[in-house]
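sorry to bug you again but im stuck and you know this stuff better than me. what follows is a protein written twice so to speak, once as letters and once as structure tokens for the fold. id like you to explain what the token line says about the fold, in plain words if possible. anything you notice is useful, everything is just below.
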Amino acid sequence: MNQHISPAKTAVTFAVLLGGLHLVWSIFVAFGWAQMIIDFVFWAHMLSIPVVVKAFDATAFITLIVITSIIGAIFGYAMAIIWNRLHRV
């Protein structure tokens, strides 16, 4: 049984997952829901950190999605390489 995975496909998968998560966050910011969500998350983790969500900024939005997608791709690629080396037949 071949347990190897494609580094390229894994990189794309991680890029979409990480970039997509931050896309959802940006949508929350754009609709004004982010402060309520971050307040809930901090409350649930029993934290008290004064965080204020700023207004939606298109430049920050694009930067966030691009950078997190690149980081996701790098981690996905690295994870596939490590996985394949640990599962050599």
Notes: The chain has three helices and no strands. Residues 58-86 form the longest helix (29 residues).
